[in-house]
Amino acid sequence: MPHSFIKARLFDGALECDLPDNFADVSTIREVPDNQEVYLDKDGFTSIIIEITQRVDAPGNGLERDGRALTIHLEELVGDDADGVKVWNTTETQFSHLAESIPAYTLIATQTPKPPHGGADDPSRRSAAPDFTALILTLVRLEKENTDILITINVPHINGAYDEDDVDMALGRHGELIGNAVEYAARIWSSFEVKSWRLFDEV
């Protein structure tokens, strides 16, 4: 079933993109860092985070350099849980309303949490943590502005809330939740616009 989207004004309207209409602006219920916009699925656990960060300097040229920057951002995102992360694919990404000269990349990864201290068979602990979290991470590299934009869609897969038989990343079976997130990402790529480049002077 196709999803409905609304145009979201981000960072006081400096950026705009389409987001699913069943996602809520988290800043209305709790504090969010100034360099982030966070939206949460009202009917599930998926979240979308748009973050403006200082450009990561990585060695190498072109694709090699940008690939390393993407890896650095992913490692910072997952923190101490890096051992449980597997990247399934990485692709170059074109945004419809950004110049073709602006490089962008998207990866799909999964993060499996470490076994809880109480043991994997402790039902209270098992229900508290997702089986795994899928990540769709898009990096936009604005060299002149010395800025990286990160668009992260986090998709926790919690036991009982998804069909395990539908998900086999190794075979390319993403299941409904990740399939939805891929649709959200594609809509962001086609609708994302910078309305005020002065935003990046403030980072």
From TrEMBL:
It holds the Pfam family Mog1. Keywords: Protein transport, Transport. One of its GO terms (molecular function) is guanyl-nucleotide exchange factor activity. One of its GO terms (biological process) is protein import into nucleus. The keyword Hydrolase does not apply. Coiled coil: none annotated. It comes from the Eukaryota. GO terms for cellular component: nucleus. PANTHER family: RAN GUANINE NUCLEOTIDE RELEASE FACTOR (PTHR15837). Belongs to the MOG1 family. This is Ran guanine nucleotide release factor.
